[in-house]
Amino acid sequence: MIGKLTGQLLEKNPPEVLIDCHGVGYEVLVPMSTFYHLPATGEPVSLLTQFIVREDAQLLYGFATAAERQTFRELIKVSGVGPRTALAILSGIGAADLAQAVTLQEAGRLVKVPGIGKKTAERLLLELKGKLGADIGARAQPGSQAQTDILQALLALGYNDKEAAAALKALPTDVGVSEGIKLALKALAK
């Protein structure tokens, strides 16, 4: 119904902002990633929005980018994830990092978001697979299936995200899974 708001930013009270659009003030809930990029109070602002109607409320959610809004829309389709939880996820991890976590199937990154437990994180990864990816997040790097498998193997062996990612970067891009794991383990052993 309401897809975009352009007006003057009147108030900033995280996670809510008030935007004056030609005399009508709209209260808009925004993720922190959008909040940090808002102009100063009194300046013009433009947000893409998602209008949610519930039995007890009509809520407007705002986003700085189309990728954030699309990610929000995909998140609220997941069973057990409502708009507030989706907003918390976008505030805690961001659209690009969420897309990367889904691409690489990293539940550990989602569990770090307040309110997201292990089961919810696993459900998110399962239901969002193929819906979020490199086309949504600018920093998401899907790589080949072999690289994803190598990364998962290193994580399963107890290496942390940073170590596994560093070892993966040192590998040739066309390496096979078994050879890649051997080379990565040698690199990590040094």
What is the gyration radius calculated from CA atoms?
Answer: 20 Å
Low-confidence stretches: 134-142
SSE pattern: EEEHEEHHHHHHHH
* Content of β-strand: 15-25%
Q: Could you give the count of β-strands?
A: 5
Task: Specify the overall morphology.
Answer: elongated
Mean model confidence by pLDDT: 87
Major sheet: 5 strands, antiparallel
Question: How much helical structure, as a percent, in the residues?
Answer: 40-55%
Q: Helical segment tally?
A: 9
Structural class: alpha+beta
Strand order of the largest sheet: 3-2-1-4-5
| Cα distance spanning the termini | 58 Å
Describe the model.
It is a single chain. 45% of the residues lie in helices and 20% in strands. By secondary structure, it is an alpha+beta fold. The chain has a five-stranded antiparallel sheet with strand order 3-2-1-4-5, with helices on one face. The protein contains nine helices and five strands; from the N terminus they run βββαββαααααααα. Helix 7 (145-156) crosses helix 9 (177-189). A hairpin with a 2-residue loop joins strand 2 (16-21) and strand 3.
Write the layout of secondary structure elements.
Blueprint: E1 4-13, E2 16-21, E3 24-29, H1 32-35, E4 44-53, E5 58-63, H2 66-77, H3 83-92, H4 95-104, H5 107-111, H6 118-128, H7 145-156, H8 161-169, H9 177-189
Antiparallel strand pairs: 1-2, 1-4, 2-3, 4-5
Helix pairs in contact: 2-3, 7-8, 7-9, 8-9
